[in-house]
Amino acid sequence: MNNPASPLRIGSLELASPVVLAPMAGITNVAFRTLCRELEIARAGSVSGLYVCEMVTARALVERQPATLHMTTFGPTETPRSLQLYTVDPETTYRAAKMIVDENMADHIDMNFGCPVPKVTRKGGGAALPYKRTLFGRIVAAAVRACEGTDVPVTVKFRVGIDDANHTHLDAGRIAAAEGAAAVALHARTAAQRYSGSADWNEIARLKEHVTDVPVLGNGDIFAAADAVRMMAETGCDGVVVGRGCLGRPWLFAELSAALAGRPEPVPPTLGEVAVIVARHAELLADHHGEDKGLRELRKHVSWYLRGFPAGSDLRVALALVSSLAELDDLLAQLDPTIAFPKDAEGPRGRQGSPGNVALPEGWLDDPEDCLVPAGADLMHSGG
Questions:
Q1: β-pairing, 216-219 with 183-190?
Q2: CA 300/CA 280 separation, integer angstroms
Q3: Residues 36, 115, 147, 246: which is the catalytic one?
Q4: pLDDT, tens digit, for every residue of 317-333?
Q5: Is 371 a catalytic residue?
Q6: Closest to 56 (Cα-Cα) out of 33, 25, 79, 31
Q7: Are 55 and 84 in contact (CB under 8 A)?
Q8: What's the rounded mean pLDDT across residues 145-164?
Q9: What DSSP assignment string belongs to 238-249?
Q10: Which segments constitute the DUS-like FMN-binding domain (predicted)?
Q11: CB-based contact 217:204 (threshold 8 Å)
């Protein structure tokens, strides 16, 4: 059994378990977060970490776009409420963060500077932006200034850099802490890697050595509770951020909570228990989106839930096309409830893709001190 991990303090927030659910577009809506929290309560007896909503665009939030406001929905008992902003402009950042605190929309603001998607980096957003050190610092400072006098902490998530020739994480961590960020999180890949290959946990250790006055969280390749324990032991990081590892495994947070508290991990669910979890996920999605859209949203989760289980190709196809709660119940009833959680279900999951050159605005690398706001980089839709 492991020695218990220390609680994680992020500004005014104290988390019993140093685990954060990473925002994922189309995944970490109120339905998924509620499911993760319910399963942690049921299987580990606690809700101990931080569950972050899907990324929302600061400009879309300020403009009160209905789809973006819908994404900021939190459950009636959800606390702390954590909202992630994508932003490129200090002024819009301030307005969005001020709106969040003035209207009591969330208890924590995270800022995303890690997105490697070409449509984002091509305009200077996401993982491209920390290269512009002055602009990056002004954006973080704007969010912190908007939250002054409140209990809402601001945190910042970023990658190692643009590519192997342009690492930005040490500067980004130093600047974010200096501007008042309450914690920083590092996805230990470059933008060029996207989600391919292996995360370089050594860079998390380097950041932890470099940033000593606020917590440093590590992200990348945590697919089991043992991975989180090992990351914290090897890097000295103060907490872990989990993304793709929980796809089709919303009960992972119960396992993480137990392992990091030094308790035995709960036994993974049988196929029958997974079927109950899928049905609950569908019910929550239907509550949030309506039954038609909710079931369409569920479809992408099906292959993750059934990974490694013997389910038959016809049943898998039918589940991937499911369109109503009643139909879902009929299909789930065809699964063998006695099958234990398979070894084949462990390991990496979710998108991986291939590394590639990072699309950047023309001349982006010429002057890291240039603080001109990149044109059109804040027009992307919320969610990534």
A1: parallel
A2: 15
A3: 115
A4: 999 999 999 999 999 99
A5: no
A6: 25
A7: yes
A8: 98
A9: SEEEE-GGGTT-
A10: 21-332
A11: no
